[in-house]
Amino acid sequence: MRAAIRLVAAVALVMVMVMVMVAGVAQASVTAGDAATWSDVLIVNVTGIPVRITVDNTTTSTIASGASAPPMRLPVGEHRVVRAGEPGVDMRLAGGCSAVWLLTPAGSPSPVMPLTECPSPGTVHPGDASIRVINAAVIPFNLRLSVEGQFTATAGQWSASPRIVVPAGTVTVLASRTDLPGPVAQATATLLAGHGYAAVLAGGGETPVSFSVVEDAGAQPPNPPNPSVPINTGLGLTDGSASAAAVAPAASAACRERGVSTSVVSLLRTVRDIRCGSAPLPGLTPAAAGAFTHSVGHHRDLDASPGEAEPRWVRVDRINAPVVSVPSSSMADLPEILPGDEAGWVAGTNLPGQGGVAMIVGHVDFSNQPAVFNTLDSVAPGDRVTVSLIDGTSVVYTVEQSLAVPKGQLPAWLYAPSTVSLLLLVSCTGVVSPITGLHMLNRVIVAAEG
Predict the structure, then answer these.
(1) Cβ distance 386 to 7 under 8 Å?
(2) pTM listed for this prediction
């Protein structure tokens, strides 16, 4: 009895050591700099006259007074903004932020003033929008924003208020000074659910007063996956009719490839847990592979009636896969509902090409075979991703970033509102836990439309 107790204790200790060792390898595999490498920028003209600008000597546009240029997605770091006929201004961007650059009238502290939200605006409830007030008045005073007479926020000169959550729909927006009665400006705006806006008051003195509502934070996923829930996109080996002894040599080879010693494998074999990978194991015959079992639940058939603009196919690098729909609440259970030969658009994220963040997941391996996203690790910045939609149109994205992050630790900024249409391609990568038989990291490809 004592010998048996000692053996169980030894096995438990070794298993803990293996988990610590593998966890260390997983952490070391995280892509350096897993913060966002970009920022969304909206340029708003509050000068009272049309202004022509150039950003980084490449992007040039003319912006009417009280209007904004199309949103841009720029890499982190310094950017040169030049107003026609004036010296340039260096603007710095931080990753994962939402920035508004105000083109200001003469006499302002700077010809271009930044108003930055870091991190990007947070999630609002489905059916709601968010709005803030930007006070760009030449005369100093505190400005109060009121939406439908119920929701209020206040901002000092050359600043922005915190965001307030308001019901989506057509609303009346009032701006008033906190030191005087009555509104100084009002506007009617249609706010879309899940989008973020800014009410901008500008001018005064010799500059005409303008008051406009612009979309400054873009769309956000209405019901994204919980970032703390692991996204399981690889199906590990499970004990079926094959015995542990039948696959021990193959498992030993697979474990050695992943840095697990033969002696540890021997102890693991004692407790019949020798799963060191979900890809095909060396020396495992097709017959033996078939002896391992997996369970695939019901999923939506490709011939079912999907939403009007849901994705139907995704292509990037060597990946060319059909796409079905999976619920955002199923990320930990994907091996049970998503087969290995199909990718899954996560319902609850935005539709491709319609602003915000769309997510498509796919297995890296499944039932001891490479699966649809088996080569996702090789996708690199600059690669083009094409998503074909059910309505016959396509959306093309350019890869910006490739991340490897521990499961259940996806950065929250991945789901933040975005003025640019984003796509996340997600699978598994890295070492496989000898305890669970599942990969310990998620590979996340971040791509922007265009």
Answers:
(1) no
(2) 0.69
